[in-house]
User: Fold this.
Amino acid sequence: MAIKKFWVIAYRDLIRNRRRTILTLVAVALGMMILIMMSGLIAGMVAGGLRDNIRLNTGHLQLRDDTYEIEKLSLLSRDLLQDSDSLISKAEALSEVQSAAPVLWASGVLSTVRESTGLAVTGIDPADDFHAPVRDGIVAGKYLKADDRGQILIGKRLADDMDIIVGQRVSLAMGGADGQVDEGIFTVTGLFNTGIINYDQNTVIMPLAQAQTFSNSGNRASSIIVMLKDQEDTAKVAAALQAPGIQVLTWEDLNAILLTLMETAGAFYYVLYIIVILVVAVLIANTLLMSVFERTRELGILASLGMKGRQIMLMVLFEAVILALLGVAAGLVLGATVVAYLARVGISFSADAMGSIEGMALGSKMYPAFAPGDAITLSLLMFFIVSLVSIYPAWYAARMEPVKALHAL
Amino acid sequence: MSVIELENATKIYSIGEVETRALDGVSLTIEEGEFTTIVGPSGSGKTTMLQLMGVLDQPNSGIVKINGQDVTKFKANKRADLRREMIGFIFQFFALVPVLNAYENVELPLLLNNVKPAERKERVMTLLEAVGLSDRIKHRPDQLSGGQQQRVAIARALSTDPLLVLADEPTANLDTENGQQAMEIMERLNKDTGTAFVFATHDPRVVSFARRVVEMQDGKIINNGTVL
Assistant:
């Protein structure tokens, strides 16, 4: 019975000093909003980074020869897919598959008269939709055609670093399937900017047929990159594409390092979350402590009426609970609204921040994503820590000697 | 029957290295239904004695008995129980809970005692009527005059039907009319309910109502008074 009245007293005590209560609520709400926004940014960054990497590099699934090791970029015929066409047909026959694109990877050295740099050479089927980010990211010159010969695309960043312009002829040395290094002169037909720094700085792209010819790889491919209509179907399609001598790698296998990095970053961000929560919690504790000091006399009166220490403690804690609940709810709504808006319009990053320039196909914008799981965890964490820290002012109020408290009269 | 017994109670306050003997071996018995005033100059120990009687504080030595039970060594929670069930307080500064209205202030001790709603309502209304405030039940303390606030405090002190009401300078902040009115109400309620009232005061108006006057000086009782 008395508990209900404690809630009433706690609530009225809060509205008694409206300005202080509102300021405290604003602080809690802002703290919560920051948390929700941080979590939204991180969720967006993780999802966006992963999405970009899947879209540009790894696809949802890759089919490779059992013996192929990506670190070696081997062109030995035993490490390459012998019959990529039948694997592509098999993949494309599945309704869940959007595209299946063969690629040939090799390491190479690109040289101008002034300098050389080591990089990855990728042979692609230019018509395949998987390479749309490169096609859409052309900022100078033109995209490739499947039957182009002697023509390559390089990243805008690489071109800037090496002072290469469209139409310039450059030398490209590449190891072949026979173990011999062959060198050829190629014309840079276009510059691309995908927005992924590493890719734009270290990749040379040429038509698959030309790469196969140049490396003496016949019609073999390093990998078939499979894009799915729905990422959720990864396991199902992976199972369907299993075949002897073929390794089927999922996007999780292919992005293991990225996922681990993101997980580690996530743990670090939780430390930041806790710091924000503690700042808010200390603020509330301070507000309550001030309120307790101001009400010393009243607390003495309540004690004289026979209210026990734990009841006084509960009453002060109720104030913290009301502040925390209202503040967390307001912050949650505000944060979710801001994240929802940013998720729609995206956040544009400056060229410096992204390390790139105009015309990027990917990575130019970051789209935060509201993470309901994180929002619930953070709300509970905020509520729990604020309540926990508020135990101190509540305990302080509870242990006041009635006589001393009444002397504040 | 004795409501309160102080036996050789001593209370010493220490501030730094200075010790003040606020009560010096005081013995006093308050019987059921008494209407007693403790008088004496400032610093004579009146308020300290009231605090020991109200188990708000504990003596350094001596014994405090309430209703025949030795409560001297009671822990804080048990003392809170005793106050809630047996003792009502009236303070100089009215001491109402500012966020509660008149009704709720009187109701609070009953809530703490888990009295049922119907009984609670009847009790609160009877008391507010008895102090002439049945038309002010929704008013918060800041909407009441000093005299009205003190009348609410009187009603609250009696809400749990205590054995004893302790009033520390209850008329000190009231004008003559309101002081007189408050004393008349308490005298009437004392007679109607049988609850003992003990006042600590300088106010001759209060003394004039008393049926027993205890005089104190320098922490000692110099005149134990006689119940009239």
Notes: Confidence is low (pLDDT under 50) at residues 355-361 of chain A. Residues 18-58 of chain A form the longest helix (41 residues). The interface with chain B takes residues 1-2, 5, 8-9, 12-13, 16, 297-298, 301-309, 311, 401-403, 406, 409 of chain A (CB under 8 Å).
